[in-house]
Amino acid sequence: MIGPLLPAARVRAGGEESEQRRPAGLDSRVAALCLAALLLIGALMGSLNLLVDGVLRDGAGRWAYASTMLLLFALSGHLACRGRVGQAHTFGLVLLGDVIYLVVVLCIQDPLRYATPLMLLFPALAGAWFLPLRPLCVHMVATTGICLAALWPSYDSAVGLVVQAGVSACTLNAAAMGVFVLRRRVQRLLVATETISHQDALTGLYNRRYLVEQAPRLWGQARRDGTQLSAMVLDLDHFKRLNDEFGHAVGDAVLRAVARSLSGAVRPADLLARTGGEELVVVGSVAVVAEGRRLAERLRLAVAGARSEDGHAVTASVGIAVARPVEGEDPVAALWRLIDRADAAMYVAKRSGRDRVALADRPRSRATHAEPATWQRGHPAGSVARPETSRAVGSADL
């Protein structure tokens, strides 16, 4: 299976945890508008009984019925204006729908003709689509009790009451459970589709599309925390030679082994993605440049220590660039500028002998691109080996 290579917490966030938080964000607004529409439709349809003679009981019954319809209109308007609803509120509205049906029954002269249990389809379907399983089961039990209470005055025989209430409750609950199962199926398909769209099929890592989608979040988080963002581009050394000599199946196995090793080496908050071929990108926040440099070295060692099942291994050339987010800039464009700088540094590492890390200079302007600095495996900590064409970079520039 490829999926387990994704960080477990992120997979859960797209699956089971999303069900526990539902409705939230956009889902919360959709739920609020749908519930508002159901309340409005119920109020409009129920209000028609006020215009028909002989349907409602005279006196207090008519006034109670009219007040109930006004309550539905008010709740509908409130939800539409508020634009959001929590899970507890949704559960309360569904139970309120059951109680309102019982009030309607008590206000109508002939419930079997003008207030059949079919009216409970409104809360039943709302609960099935918006509630988790446990609250839905509570609602289904409440539906059974409401059917018994609503049909009680209309039947002299206990057997007839139980049969009719049972048929009505079973029909409503079966419809609710069917919609609930369908909803869960749709949710699983959506989660699977989203995972596929964000996941590299070979390695199980995130892909280029997910990297782009996360740019605003990464930029915003770095600005809030007052940190810098680092981008590391890793390119596997002599990977084409490996494919040519041993075949693409071996190359794929090595890529998967590298992905597993890097997944264990990156920090939990870092974003690791495969952007194409044998090129990988890691984006994360750092307090100082030295922190990013240490992480890049750790990733280089993780690649060197990765082994496929057949024992094949590769090394990686790593380029790293660091930038501080600026207010008003486009996060996606800024991210790719940062990655381009890291990519240029990676090529310097290639030219300097491979299996090493190169650090990109911070550009003094968009028109100026300084040559990256590199340091090699085996140099003392803090020492930097620079090619002759590289320009010296002080820590103040970084």
Automatic annotation (TrEMBL):
EC number: 2.7.7.65
SMART domains the UniProt entry points to: GGDEF (SM00267)
Ranges that cross the membrane: 30-51, 63-81, 88-108, 114-131, 161-182
Annotated protein name in UniProt: GGDEF domain-containing protein
Domain named GGDEF: residues: 227-362
Entry keyword Membrane: yes
Keywords, in A-Z order: Membrane, Nucleotidyltransferase, Transferase, Transmembrane, Transmembrane helix
Signal peptide: none
UniProt-recorded Gene Ontology molecular function terms: diguanylate cyclase activity
PANTHER family, sorted: DIGUANYLATE CYCLASE DGCM-RELATED, REGULATORY COMPONENTS OF SENSORY TRANSDUCTION SYSTEM
Keyword Secreted: no
InterPro entries cross-referenced by the UniProt entry: Diguanylate_Cyclase, GGDEF_dom, Nucleotide_cyclase, Rev_trsase/Diguanyl_cyclase
Organism the protein comes from: Blastococcus goldschmidtiae
One matching Pfam family: GGDEF
Coiled-coil ranges (or none): none
Gene3D superfamilies reported for this sequence: 3.30.70.270
Entry superkingdom: Bacteria
Region annotation Disordered: where it falls in the sequence: 359-398
CDD domains to which the protein is assigned, alphabetical: GGDEF
SUPFAM superfamilies named in the record: Nucleotide cyclase
